Amino acid sequence: MSKHLYLKTAIFFVLMFMLALSAQSQYLCGDVDGSDQINVADITYLVRYFFTEGPEPVPLLAGDCDFNGDVNIGDLTHLVSYLFRGGPTPCSNPTGTLVDHTGCKTFQKSDSTSPNLDCVEYEYDGGSKLTLKHVNAGFNCCPGSIEADITIENSLITITESESYDSLGPCACLCLFDVDMEIINLPPGEYTIKVNELNLDEGDEILDFTISLSSSPSSGSHCVGRDHYPWGYYQTAAVDFGECKTFQKVTPPDSMPPDQDCIEYQYDGQGFLSINHINAGFNCCPDELAAIISIEGNVITIEEVEYLYTGGCYCLCLFDLGYEITGLSPGEYTVKVIEPYKDPDDEPLEFNINLSSSPSSGQHCVYRSHYPWGVY
Q1: pLDDT (average), residues 101-106
Q2: Cβ(115)–Cβ(234) below 8 Å
Q3: Do 258 and 247 contact (CB within 8 A), yes or no?
Q4: What whole-number distance in Å separates Cα of residue 308 and Cα of residue 376?
Q5: Within 13 A of 282's CA, how many CA atoms are on the CB side?
Q6: pLDDT score for 86
Q7: The dihedral sign for the CA sequence 253, 258, 261, 263
Q8: Scanning 18, 99, 105, 277, which has the fewest C-beta atoms within 10 Å of its C-beta?
Q9: Distance CA 106, CA 77 (A)
Q10: Tell me, what DSSP letter sits at residue 89?
Q11: Higher confidence at residue 82 or residue 156?
């Protein structure tokens, strides 16, 4: 073969190869029978290809409807969902976004999810849309923004959460939020959801679970237990802390004199514990009184704080404060109260309570002999 003839033959084959590649690259995904449209005939074509040794899609990649790099039964499911259930367009990439989130949560007796549970709830419309709610996600108390990077690689959905701050930076506390997300163009199938969270301790169980999404609407949830800050904490303002108390010299028998620092409690036997701190010492005119309530093992710690945004007054005073704890199982607990104006030598307000499955109540007091206690 002459050099010129060899060169012409090589150019011919290169051109034919390029034309073939061009034809392959111009296919309509889902149009497996090469008719330039996607319809029921393409479903029939795929059924024959998978089950009766019919011809393969033209080109083969046109049958990769779920865009995962392989042509299999999942593509047939995707095509049926698209044509009959409003599912995602063939070869469209699923995408996920953060939609909304709550503010820092407070917990009431009626809350369905207690603060020691970290959960993902999901709903699927049976075609293409998956909505997710991360319940009790731990973030800083006052982030500038809460963010989530959602990636979908084959059957793995990874959610990586983060936060940013304004010019003042973060607050010196953590808190729980509910975060709403959604993924669109997601065909039916089995998926693993993995959440990369902030504020986990080493050894904490990861929110990582598998869901099976069919062509029918479905929903469910997956939860793991958390036993450390910010989970298990009730970051909340005191329940109606009222005003600085005044006392009469003659104290009625059913009242608490100002030299007594007391905790009164009531338990409903089903998880709800109400605590009243009687004669708690604070600045006379705080802008806000609050407490961080933690439950670690069988120890309930109430750390009381005051906020003096306007500077406060040059005096101390006694207040009555109320707190609520939900989702507390029956058992024996130690209650510890950390008070801002207790002297180092004072007896701590600390005691044991035994909570059974029956309603119960009780009281524990310690004596205080110095300002602001004991002053009329």
Answers
A1: 83
A2: yes
A3: yes
A4: 24
A5: 29
A6: 74
A7: positive
A8: 18
A9: 43
A10: P
A11: 156
Question: What's the maximum distance between 2 C-alpha atoms anywhere in the chain?
Answer: 125
Q: Using an 8 Å Cβ cutoff, are 282 and 340 in contact?
A: yes
Measured over the CA atoms of residue 321, residue 116, residue 219 and residue 94, the dihedral's sign is positive
Give me the amino acid identity at 322: G
Beta strand spans in 185-251 (E)? 189-196, 207-213, 218-225, 233-237
Q: Decide if 113 contacts 221 (C-beta within 8 A).
A: no
- As a whole number of Å, the end-to-end CA separation of the chain is 118
| The one-letter amino acid at 106 | T
Element (H, E) at 158: strand 156-164
The per-residue pLDDT of the chain, averaged, comes to 84
Q: How many CB atoms lie within 10 A of CB 34?
A: 14
pTM above 0.85, yes or no: no
Kindly report the length of the chain: 376
Structure tokens given for 314: 């040059």
- pLDDT band for 14, please (50, 70, 90 cuts): very low
Q: Count CB-CB contacts under 10 A for residue 143.
A: 20
Which is it for strands 299-307 and 331-338: parallel, antiparallel or unpaired? parallel
φ and ψ of 89, to 5 deg: -60, 140
- Of the candidate ranges 2-11, 89-98, 143-152, 179-188, the one whose mean pLDDT is the lowest: 2-11
| Most confident range, picked from 82-86, 158-162, 266-270 | 158-162
Instruction: Decide if 292 contacts 233 (C-beta within 8 A).
Output: yes
pLDDT tens digits, 167-219: 778 877 788 999 999 998 888 889 999 999 999 988 899 999 999 998 788 99
Tokens of 54: 């019919």
Task: Determine whether 146 is exposed, middle or buried from the number of CB atoms within 10 Å of its CB (0-12, 13-18, 19+).
Answer: buried
Cis peptide before 187 (omega within 30 of 0): no
CA distance 184 to 99: 12
Residues 267 and 297 sit within 8 Å (Cβ to Cβ): no
